[in-house]
Specification:
This protein is mostly helical and 318 residues long. The protein contains 17 helices and 2 strands. The longest helix is centred in the middle third of the chain and has 29 residues, at 175-203.
């Protein structure tokens, strides 16, 4: 009898909670209606296309459709891994992203710390505006600027090189220069914009901590090291995890615009190969398998880095 009463009580409380939840939702229905657009967007453009992933395991034919195409299992994955260009594509993709993490990721942090230390508010705003305006330059214009400034015939950079007695350098036609140009131009274009979130995080650091450190005799560098950086460390870790989550995704449009036959050895990455083989040559199943391989690697890296950050820095996405 007691067990039956307890069960009835639990069921009654559960119904009461559901009823109160529905009443709360009904009272603010306008806010919940605003969620419909992003939910539909994710369902249509993110979850809906997952149905088509099965073509990575089939010899997809547009005439037969997805269900009518022949199942081939892991053949496309084996073909990609055993291909002669697999290691070149993997190294180019990994090296560009690895060097970007090593060089491009810390610079917005340093810039935010620098701006935070500027005492003049007017000068601080000027620095912020000058550094984040390049973010609004389109990729096409950015590559056009690179071609203009680095042109071996009259480009400002080569003009300076010639003025010092050197020979013109064909930067954009050189595989050795491609990664340096790609990463350095990305740093220049995005460092100001990416520093905004760190500046916002620095504004939330308790000013009393700076005063206490100053009274203890800490220098400006020591205050940055012991107060500013620990104050924004959770934000740095979260953004690092998010960056690693798309580690295998490179700036496809920019690389494609900068790419030519002379620098292909360094510029051919997985995303550009998927474009050339899948869109231009129509190898849909093969490139779907490559894209799935890319996504699985990204997911594995995200889980590993998130777990490592949770253990070491006690900060994580979940």
């Amino acid at each position: 009898m007691k067990t039956t009463a307890n069960t009835a009580g639990v069921a009654s409380r559960s119904r009461s909670r559901r009823s109160s939840l529905w009443r709360a939702m009904a009272s603010r229905y306008d806010l919940y209606l605003m969620l419909l657009v992003p939910i539909l967007w994710y369902l249509v453009f993110h979850y809906g296309p997952l149905y088509g992933l099965q073509i990575a395991f089939k010899n997809f034919s547009p005439a037969k459709g997805i269900l009518g195409s022949k199942w081939v299992g892991l053949d496309h994955f084996e073909r990609f891994i055993e291909s002669y260009y697999f290691w070149r594509l993997l190294w180019n993709t990994v090296s560009i992203n690895l060097f970007s993490l090593l060089f491009a990721f810390p610079i917005p942090v340093f810039l935010a710390l620098l701006i935070n230390e500027i005492r003049s508010k007017a000068f601080s705003k000027i620095v912020q505006n000058v550094t984040y305006i390049p973010h609004f330059i389109s990729v096409v214009v950015m590559v056009g600027m690179l071609m203009l400034f680095l042109s071996p015939q009259g480009g400002p950079v080569n003009t300076i090189i010639e003025a010092f007695g050197g020979e013109p350098v064909r930067f954009l036609d050189s595989a050795a220069w491609f990664k340096t140009l790609f990463i350095s131009s990305n740093i220049w274009q995005n460092m100001g914009w990416q520093s905004i979130i760190y500046i916002a995080a620095l504004s939330g650091v308790n000013p009393q901590l700076y005063e206490a450190a100053k009274m203890d005799g800490a220098s400006r560098l020591q205050r940055i090291w012991h107060v500013s950086i620990p104050g924004i460390l959770p934000v740095i870790v979260i953004l690092l995890i998010l960056d690693v989550g798309h580690f295998m995704n490179v700036g496809f449009e920019k690389i494609l615009l900068m790419q030519n036959n002379l620098n292909l050895e360094s510029s051919d990455v997985i995303s550009t190969f998927v474009y050339s083989a899948g869109i231009l040559k129509g190898e849909y199943s093969y490139t779907a398998a490559i894209g799935l391989f890319n996504s699985v690697v990204n997911l594995a890296l995200l889980i590993l880095v998130n777990r490592f950050a949770r253990k070491k820095a006690e900060t994580s996405l979940w």
